[in-house]
Design goal:
The protein has 139 residues and is of the alpha+beta class. It is built from three helices and five strands; from the N terminus they run αβββαββα. The chain has one domain: 2-Layer Sandwich (HIT family, subunit A). α2 crosses α3. It starts with 7 loop residues before the first helix and ends with a helix. The structure holds guanosine-5'-monophosphate (5GP). Guanosine-5'-monophosphate binds next to β2.
Length: 139
């Protein structure tokens, strides 16, 4: 399917809608999920226009996983998380709701339940506080 350049992450990349940013380089952007499944839930996207993993260039895929690893390390430190869960959904049938490829990074504590979709919007100040904690843990 052709890439839809009006999806929300494309708009975030173009600066048309706000996001609580954690990290940015020339190929990727990491920011807080606006409807988090758990405190510290964040997203990493490539700047390349690609809907899913099958559409992304090898260079884009390399940059995406590199930033995901970097931010995941910081999330683990910032949230003192014994576990880190990465999620990456491709296509509506797999549950993908935003058609611009992204990795979810979720800090996990044993025994804490996790609901993937249908969460309420989080308070932006709370998200900014979490982003600051993660930024402080980036190397
Ligand atoms: P998917 O279901 O496509 O794997 O995940 C999309 C994620 O994007 C969801 O976790 C959802 O909460 C998040 N999301 C949707 N719209 C926005 C938005 O406008 N800003 C941010 N920061 N996250 C969004």
């Amino acid at each position: 399917m052709a890439y839809d350049s009006n999806n929300v992450f494309a708009k975030i990349l173009r600066g048309e809608i706000p996001s609580v940013k954690i990290y940015e380089d020339d190929k990727t952007l990491a920011f807080m999920d606006i409807m988090p499944s758990i405190d510290g839930h964040c997203l990493v996207i490539p700047k390349e226009a690609a809907e899913g993993i099958l559409d992304l260039s090898p260079d884009g895929a390399a940059a995406l996983i590199k930033t995901t690893q970097k931010v995941a390390r910081a999330v683990k430190t910032a949230f003192n998380a014994p576990g880190i869960m990465l999620l990456q959904l491709n296509g509506e049938a797999a549950g993908q709701t935003v058609p611009h490829i992204h990795f979810h990074i979720l800090p996990r504590q044993a025994g804490l339940d996790l609901k993937l979709h249908g969460k309420p919007m989080e308070n932006p100040d709370k998200l900014r506080g979490f982003a600051d904690k993660i930024k402080a843990a980036l190397d």
